[in-house]
Amino acid sequence: MHAARGADPDDLADVVALARRLRAEVATQRGGDLWALRHARPEPLEAAYAALIGCRDALLVVGTHGGAIVGFGAAEITPLAGSEALGVVTDLYVAPEERGAGVGMAVLTMLTAFCYKRGCSGVDALALPGSRAAKSFFEKSGFTARLLVMHRGGAGETEVNE
Questions:
Q1: Residue 26: inside a domain, yes or no?
Q2: Considering Cα of 10, then 91, then 56, then 51, what sign does the dihedral take?
């Protein structure tokens, strides 16, 4: 049976182990190197994830299957101009051997519910351009692409061709 629940301090070792697996997996994907520099939580991971537990504007969730922690996710509330707020799913990972069992959906459902209960007008989540599985997962969950970020790496040419 799969489930999701709010994480507690006793879960941090499992969350950090899964976060390290996430980093290793993403590092092999197109855009993963820059994701690690810009979007991944900073070291020490134990402190970074511990800071989310009990935070009013964030939620750390663990996903379980048969009682074992096999996935995790995090969401944070980002204020927008005026009185609006946006929920951002900053982390979502399920061990590859457990994918397809509904753990990711249980975690995502809990994260989005948290965001909407906190008054968010919407929820964003990131997927790397080469991760068709992640894109499909989010689309099945009702997400649609709203922004494509274009990137040019290195010093390269300085002239722009029109």
A1: yes
A2: positive
Helix (H, G, I), strand (E, B) or coil at 155: coil
Within a domain: 160:
no
What are the DSSP calls for 35-89, one per residue? HHHHTSPPSPHHHHHHTTTT-TTEEEEEEEETTEEEEEEEEEEEE-STT-EEEEE
DSSP state at residue 135: H
Mean pLDDT of 146-154: 88
For residues 62 and 107, give the distance between their C-alpha atoms in angstroms, rounded to a whole number. 7
User: How confident is the model over 133-162, as a mean pLDDT?
Assistant: 85
| CATH number of domain containing 47 | 3.40.630.30
- In angstroms, what is the C-alpha Rg of the chain? 17
Predicted pLDDT of residue 148? 87
